[in-house]
Amino acid sequence: xxxxxxxxxxxxxxxxxxxxxxxxxxxxxxxxxxxxxxxxxxxxxxxxxxxxxxxxxxxxxxxxxxxxxxxxxxxxxxxxxxxxxxxxxxxxxxxxxxxxxxxxxxxxxxxxxxxxxxxxxxxxxxxxxxxxxxxxxxxxxxxxxxxxxxxxxxxxxxxxxxxxxxxxxxxxxxxxxxxxxxxxxxxxxxxxxxxxxxxx
Amino acid sequence: xxxxxxxxxxxxxxxxxxxxxxxxxxxxxxxxxxxxxxxxxxxxxxxxxxxxxxxxxxxxxxxxxxxxxxxxxxxxxxxxxxxxxxxxxxxxxxxxxxxxxxxxxxxxxxxxxxxxxxxxxxxxxxxxxxxxxxxxxxxxxxxxxxxxxxxxxxxxxxxxxxxxxxxxxxxxxxxxxxxxxxxxxxxxxxxxxxxxxxxxxxxxxxxxxxxxxxxxxxxxxxxxxxxxxxxxxxxxxxxxxxxxxxxxxxxxxxxxxxxxxxxxxxxxxxxxxxxxxxxxxxxxxxxxxxxxxxxxxxxxx
Amino acid sequence: xxxxxxxxxxxxxxxxxxxxxxxxxxxxxxxxxxxxxxxxxxxxxxxxxxxxxxxxxxxxxxxxxxxxxxxxxxxxxxxxxxxxxxxxxxxxxxxxxxxxxxxxxxxxxxxxxxxxxxxxxxxxxxxxxxxxxxxxxxxxxxxxxxxxxxxxxxxxxxxxxxxxxxxxxxxxxxxxxxxxxxxxxxxxxxxxxxxxxxxxxxxxxxxxxxxxxxxxxxxxxxxxxxxxxxxxxxxxxxxxxxxxxxxxxxxxxxxxxxxxxxxxxxxxxxxxxxxxxxxxxxxxxxxxxxxxxxxxxxxxxxxxxxxxxxxxxxxxxxxxxxxxxxxxxxxxxxxxxxxxxxxxxxxxxxxxxxxxxxxxxxxxxx
Lengths: 200, 301, 366
Fold this sequence. Notes:
Strand content of chain B: 15-25%
Shape of chain B: globular
Strand order of the largest sheet of chain C: 1-2-3-4
Distance between the termini of chain B: 48 Å
Radius of gyration of chain C: 27 Å
Strand content of chain C: 5-15%
Oligomer: heterotrimer
Number of helices of chain C: 12
Order of helices and strands of chain B: HEHEHEEEHHEEEEEEEH
Order of helices and strands of chain C: HHHHHEHHHEEEHHHH
Largest sheet of chain B: 7 strands, mixed
Largest sheet of chain C: 4 strands, antiparallel
Number of strands of chain B: 12
Structural class of chain C: alpha+beta
Helix content of chain C: 25-40%
Structural class of chain B: alpha/beta
Number of helices of chain B: 6
Shape of chain C: globular
């Protein structure tokens, strides 16, 4: 017996909705640490935050291998992504242009591409689904896009991952760029942001 | 696989903002990487636009990737909204997107510019898109892309310091009046498109997002808001902006970039604001210069 | 009082109106049809298709009409149109060995299987203006020349002896690059170089190719073969499991044969330069093959001494849509930058004058 899976919906009006979602993604990337809401409606597989679904629909296509991390490597996720974006699924995390990850099941950051000094843009973009974007401040972020500095909670990501990210600054311009998504909200952390962890 | 349905056509037969959705995605990915790596030139698959290369195709592709139905677009060339190429590009986007346009810097959400940064300070939420002819700051010193790419990778910018120093030794001055080289966030040497030196300090810690598009050279780069942008200089020869012997003849401004206008063949000349919106706003507020008539709203074109 | 010049939109509108009138010329002379251009100015049409990267004679003829015969402008029109077209399929490589040949010559051999076939050519015409054409009479056509099928390619004849390098697909079976989707990066593979040269300005390639014959690059070329004619374009349809012929296109192919001295690992043999263009575009295909061969200097371990061997120089400046745009952008207002320079030059001159005056004063005081 074969099980036919009907993929979940995507954008109704890809032209306008992907533009709206892109502006949210751009605003967020330009202002690290600031919570940005993706206003546009989008269909999404169960369990995937609409903000991250919109990011994938907006940015992923035939030219961008996507790696689905633990928790997201499901038939429903794969068929939804393939159907709407045509993006090839990366077999290994280091092949990914985008990776979809769960905060509670994060692989080490070094498993992803950092790009090279001559082509740093090849560093991966990680879309991390987190349980929340608020909480007790535990980090300070500084860098382009941030006036002075900004305090941030851990957002449900293990401190060891934040430590890996903090240590990555020395590799700049090589590095990875992150979006943390919860519901319709997201926060970006580009590689240019220096982070320090309290008590670390 | 489902094709991207292009449902929001404006001018018959063309997608919203001219470019197809796959091209926009490619541009959007490049723009995000450019923002994440301030000052670094991200290569992108530039497309032929219906305007010639060198006439703003890079800025137009960036604008086309960013623009949405709710945007209010302003287009300037040499600071003015009514220069022919600005008119032509604005008209193109109106035909292709039907967005609202404005000449007022304050009202615009998206500003495409060639050669100037508006005098009116920009605010958070605004995006300034620069048209860039040659994105590589080291190009006159090293014509080979393979070499300059290595120099950026290694932050090897000594040649630029030597060039500026030789200027001082030879002329007593740094002989760069526009396109002044800057260091972005302490890492990348960047070319601010050929804006005059006068505008260079405006890039520093600007609340707006600044995007740069070079179509022919196929590069996109960015300066995020609140980012350090430092002109290269020397302690004993600090960076200075140009000054004029006169104020604007129409609005009396002494803090704006002035165009010199030749009035006759006997050396007669006047200086007027290059930023037409800024000048108009000042006149509207009652400021006058030595050659101005009392302000009255000019009829629309 | 001074009033700044306004009315850009009106001025642009007027200019376009004037251009339209200029394009039409004297209205008492009958207007050219697109079909006339397609049929009677095929040399221009072929060039516009080749450098415009679209095989569509009607569209190229229309572009030529719109550009009033300005080829670079017509190429630009075609390119700008091309970017808006969806990409429905990627064709299989065309098989020029199965070409229905209307012209085929080789300078390497006096005769060969299939023979030399002159076909439609300007070669051996005396370039005397033919005043008979003024009379708008239709010259008596002798009927289309015969098309010969499946003529062996001359380079393949050399292959049998192993005298010429074989051109085989890359072992890694990597996808062929596409400059219309990705920016030119270095080092550029031969696929990218050939695509760049195929789209390159004919005059530019002609001059570069010519320079290789005059000592700017070590080049000893022979025309292995030039062939023009029709080839089938096929696309693979995965659902059907076989390739489908979607139509014929006319192309000109040039295989240029060059001597190569050999290296420690390889005995001496001939190498190739390759040129391909839409339509009957022999000059373009030949120039392209010369430049292609020159650009292989690094691969073949030759010294890079000449402009035509310098890939960055050649490839970055080959595209006439890019070049024409950037050269002509100098027409746009640059008065802001000019003002910045004026101010600087005046400051520097004033400082020098002041310094000189100080010296004169000091001298006078002595």
